Amino acid sequence: MLSLPIAMLVEYLLLQMVFQVILLSTDRWAEKDVNPALFSRELMRNSSNFLNDEEVNRDPQSLLMKAHAATSSIGSATVIIAMLEKTGTLKIASVGDCGLKIIRKGQVMFSIYPQEHYFDCPYQISSEAVGQTYQDAVVCSVNLMEGDTIVSGSDGLFDNIFDQEIISIVSESPGVDEAAKALAELARKHSVDVTFDSPYSIEARSRGFDVPWWKKLLGAKLIGGKMDDITVVVAKVKTVAAPEDEGGDIEQQQGDEQGIAVAVASAEQNEE
Amino acid sequence: MLSLPIAMLVEYLLLQMVFQVILLSTDRWAEKDVNPALFSRELMRNSSNFLNDEEVNRDPQSLLMKAHAATSSIGSATVIIAMLEKTGTLKIASVGDCGLKIIRKGQVMFSIYPQEHYFDCPYQISSEAVGQTYQDAVVCSVNLMEGDTIVSGSDGLFDNIFDQEIISIVSESPGVDEAAKALAELARKHSVDVTFDSPYSIEARSRGFDVPWWKKLLGAKLIGGKMDDITVVVAKVKTVAAPEDEGGDIEQQQGDEQGIAVAVASAEQNEE
């Protein structure tokens, strides 16, 4: 455990590292002549703005509520908001099928599950009354340790890449930047590989989806990656402050270490 | 959200529902002429005793630390401690391969991952210095809602039963008692079924374990349930109090509803 100088402490408390707001709009809005990116971009911008609001900047669910209320664009999006506090507590609010996994000592030790109405139809924060709200979020927190890696991303990532691949890439990458890029690239590669038995195709078969009967007779099965936009955020915990460091006497910290390293990578995909 | 009368509130705060301490000892200790049940039973007893200790009764990790320090038996055990607060926050500390899943609206929305040194060798709290401690625990919390079902159990449960089976049993059971018994019985049945492609055998194959090459040539593959002791705890959230009910004016609650319903079931299995 490392303690932090006061200046850095204040910075931490202010920033609280909302390291990720992943927002995905669906194609339904494009059909209605609505730019599907507008809603998610505005929701993301509002979430960032409210980071300085003391009332909500320690609570991702309240932040989501405020950001949603302040968003006037038409559209909908799945969303995950994660805040890392300097003591190592990662607070998470998630609506829909974004994912977040914690890798510790070469193992997935924590993971957020997708919420959906039915297969491939995720919960979504929406401009319409029929959508979900902050009240539908999965809200949880997890205590992180030095060395833990956070891998978060859109369904386009986790539908196309297995846990073991994520673990390998994280362990082999020299830094979070390389890891994020490698994860996005591998997911993109798998997403367009019609012969890859992806997590998505395995899940689809387990839900009873399959190729037509006549193809089945020929030995075919539902297989392949899932074409989708892919966003990846990788963060690594470098230092964790002891809980008592939140106030009172603060010792000087050696060096210029930051408490977390973050990298974002994405791969856009057009389904048409 | 329902508010609670003061008497019930106090009861809640005192009890704080440590609804589960699952402890499993390994056969290694039996080989050393140590009764493998002693360590886990004492650790469980100590955990229960410390529930009245204000210093640790809101923090499962600290409770585990104290209970471990007070345990003098020889042995080791995997352990999960979960505390449900009246506001619906479930606090969890887990060392090893016990599991806990939250079922909400027919979906798994939260799950604890097993920690292991290598396949089938879980982290364990131990009387020996080589074992793990409270510091190795996965520590997290999740906000529960009315109607959520908590399914927790030993690896003997989750190695023998799929998420979809858990969801079906939970949704079809009239109460937690029936659900716990049905889960334990199905897991037991699968555990002795050498033709069942269990989560355990799928995981084993994915880690590179398999039948000898000559059996492979005959089309055989590593398959079957996993013989093990099975413990299941099922709990259902009936009411959740609003955060402001923790102090101040409390309105009267209608009826005699309890905040949670809990049932435990187990199936013992002898591997010899």
Keywords:
homodimer, 272 residues, alpha+beta, five-stranded antiparallel sheet, 9 helices, 12 strands, disordered N terminus
Plain-language structure description:
The structure is a homodimer of 272-residue chains. The first copy, chain A, is α+β, with helices and mostly antiparallel strands and 272 residues long. The first copy, chain A, is 30% helix and 25% strand. Chain A is built from nine helices and twelve strands. Chain A has helices spanning 6-15, 28-31, 36-49, 60-69, 155-158, 163-172, 176-191, 199-206, 213-217, and strands at 18-24, 76-84, 89-95, 99-104, 107-112, 116-118, 121-122, 125-126, 138-143, 149-153, 230-237, 260-267. In chain A, the strands form three sheets. In chain A, strands 1, 2, 3, 8 and 9 form a five-stranded antiparallel β-sheet that branches. Chain A has a five-stranded antiparallel β-sheet with strand order 5-4-10-11-12. In chain A, strands 6-7 form a two-stranded antiparallel ribbon. In chain A, a hairpin with a 2-residue loop joins strand 4 and strand 5. Chain A is globular, with a radius of gyration of 20 Å. Chain A binds chain B through residues 61, 107-113, 115-116, 138-143, 164, 206, and chain B through 61, 107-113, 115-116, 138-143, 164, 206. Strand 9 of chain A pairs antiparallel with strand 9 (138-143) of chain B. Chains A, B: Its EC number is 3.1.3.16. Chains A, B: GO terms for molecular function: metal ion binding; protein serine/threonine phosphatase activity. Chains A, B: Residues 1-237 form the PPM-type phosphatase domain. Chains A, B: Keywords: Hydrolase, Magnesium, Manganese, Metal-binding, Protein phosphatase, Signal. Chains A, B: Belongs to the PP2C family.
